């Protein structure tokens, strides 16, 4: 197995930023430095831009270049890692995104599987990933496993050894799935060499138990202070406290899901003074009434206290 930079690792909580849009749906990048400051205050270790939460699939490549550049500029000197999601259904577009990420000095790139025409099996998926990774030959590459969005559900425990053998820059996997058995087997196969970043914030603790060292998620944008308490309690061997903190995460995720999905999740940033605007079509913006009802529900469960740094 090869890895051309075995000392490179992504650890800790990586936020998947929401892409800030104005009311007309245009990029509104001015808020990004504020988010970076908040990340530093809450113990975030990097940003995974233009992924699911960042609505990368709903943006043009020109917009994705601009967003990646804005994050790179805002995080310069901060010690935070920049991971650029370069997934696209078109291979040349994905390669253009990968090459651009390398050019601007991204720490890593990641791609989700194409989802209109899908690769065949593990071999087809590795072949696709290799082509994307080759467009950024000096940048660690991560496969973004998210079957609920891509419809591509390979066992990552099978994917890992083949990817490690065939992709020179392979750095690991971002694992957004509830299958803890596959997660555990993948971690075991990865050893100390590759990072298997967990992607279901509401069950982070179950991944820590299996040995997770890093995680990427949407709620790490604003609730990392809480999740770092889950991690600290777990590391101290206090499982009761770790579970109690994790339950607070489950409760606030349940609370915002009652009022919407990504649109409600994105609106939480507005409630915390870092407004990132509405979601883009085909998703529908959340109404002011729903935001107010969500705020009341979040207050009821002590959300604003539990996420305060
Ligand atoms: C659809 C989506 O954005 N999934 C995220 C990561 O992949 C997660 O961070 C979830 O948003 C989070 O676990 C809450 O359900
Ligand atoms: C959570 C995540 O990794 C994403 O939104 O892409």
Automatic annotation (TrEMBL):
It holds the Pfam family DHDPS. GO terms for cellular component: cytoplasm. It comes from the Bacteria. It is found in: Cytoplasm. Pyruvate binds at residues 53, 216. Keywords: Carbohydrate metabolism, Cytoplasm, Lyase. Transmembrane segments: none annotated. The keyword DNA repair does not apply. The keyword Lipoprotein does not apply. InterPro entries: Aldolase_TIM, DapA-like. One of its GO terms (molecular function) is lyase activity. Belongs to the DapA family. PANTHER family: DIHYDRODIPICOLINATE SYNTHASE, N-ACETYLNEURAMINATE LYASE. This is N-acetylneuraminate lyase. It comes from Ereboglobus luteus.
């Amino acid at each position: 197995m090869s890895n051309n930079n075995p000392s490179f690792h992504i650890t800790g909580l990586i936020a998947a930023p929401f892409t800030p849009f104005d009311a007309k749906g245009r990029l509104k990048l001015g808020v990004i430095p504020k988010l970076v400051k908040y990340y530093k205050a809450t113990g975030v270790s990097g940003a995974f831009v233009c992924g699911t939460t960042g609505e990368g699939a709903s943006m043009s490549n020109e917009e994705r270049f601009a967003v990646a550049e804005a994050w790179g500029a805002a995080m310069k000197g901060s010690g935070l890692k920049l991971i650029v999601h370069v997934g696209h259904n078109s291979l040349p577009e994905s390669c253009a995104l990968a090459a651009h990420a390398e050019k601007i000095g991204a720490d890593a790139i990641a791609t989700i599987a194409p989802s209109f025409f899908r690769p065949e099996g593990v071999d087809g998926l590795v072949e696709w990933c290799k082509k994307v990774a080759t467009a950024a030959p000096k940048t660690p590459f991560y496969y973004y496993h998210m079957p609920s969005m891509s419809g591509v559900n390979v066992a990552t425990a099978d994917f890992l050894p083949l990817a490690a053998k065939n992709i020179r820059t392979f750095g690991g996997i971002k694992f957004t799935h509830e299958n803890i058995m596959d997660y555990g087997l993948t971690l075991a196969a990865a050893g100390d060499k590759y990072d298997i970043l967990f992607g279901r914030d509401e069950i982070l603790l179950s991944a820590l138990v299996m040995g997770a060292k890093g995680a990427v998620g949407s709620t790490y944008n604003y609730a990392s202070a809480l999740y770092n308490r889950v991690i600290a309690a777990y590391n101290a061997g206090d499982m009761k406290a770790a579970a109690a903190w994790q339950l607070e995460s489950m409760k606030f995720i349940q609370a915002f899901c009652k009022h919407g999905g990504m649109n409600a999740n994105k609106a939480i940033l507005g409630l915390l003074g870092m407004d990132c605007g509405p979601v883009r079509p085909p998703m529908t913006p959340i109404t002011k009434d729903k935001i107010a009802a969500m705020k009341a529900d979040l207050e009821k469960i002590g959300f604003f206290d539990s996420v305060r740094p």
